[in-house]
Amino acid sequence: MARWSDAIMLQQYYHWKPQLSVPGVYEIGFVRNGEFAPRYVGSSSSSIYVRLKSHWNEYGSKSIAKYYEGRTRDLLYFHFIKSIDGIRIEQNLLKRYGIGRDSGLYLWNRKYEGVV
């Protein structure tokens, strides 16, 4: 079974381009006391790198872009799972843990992407 990578600072995403130029699922959040605390889950059917780049450049999730207002970006981390089933994994995580409006784990997700 696939497992999450170690946490990586979001500002260093570009150093990981070869490893991230694949389909998969990722979480963005914080590291607190050595533990990853996710706030957003996303996926890509082609390149995790492209999605992380969009979040870093503030044209991905509006919730992540809003977090940047008045805050230091270098506090954000991500981790990922390489998988051709990234979209399905994301949907299962959203169903299991919920989004912000429902007091769920993924506070920065605004909708249940593809979840039925």
Structural notes for this entry:
The protein has helices spanning 17-20, 48-56, 62-68, 86-97, and strands spanning 8-9, 24-32, 35-44, 77-82. Strand 2 (24-32) and strand 3 form a beta hairpin. Helices cover 28% and strands 23% of the residues. With 116 residues, the chain is of the alpha+beta class. It has one domain (8-102): GIY-YIG endonuclease (3-Layer(aba) Sandwich), CATH 3.40.1440. The relative contact order is 0.23.
Features:
4 helices, single chain, 4 strands, GIY-YIG endonuclease, four-stranded antiparallel sheet, globular, 116 residues, alpha+beta
SSE blueprint:
Elements: E1 8-9, H1 17-20, E2 24-32, E3 35-44, H2 48-56, H3 62-68, E4 77-82, H4 86-97
Antiparallel strand pairs: 1-4, 2-3, 2-4
Short description:
This protein has helices at residues 17-20, 48-56, 62-68, 86-97; strands spanning 8-9, 24-32, 35-44, 77-82. It is of the alpha+beta class. It has a single domain, classed as GIY-YIG endonuclease (3-Layer(aba) Sandwich).
SSE run: EHEEHHEH
Number of helices: 4
| Beta strand % | 15-25%
Could you describe the largest sheet, including whether it forms a barrel?
A: 4 strands, antiparallel
Mean pLDDT: 89
| Quaternary form | single chain
DSSP summary, beta strand count: 4
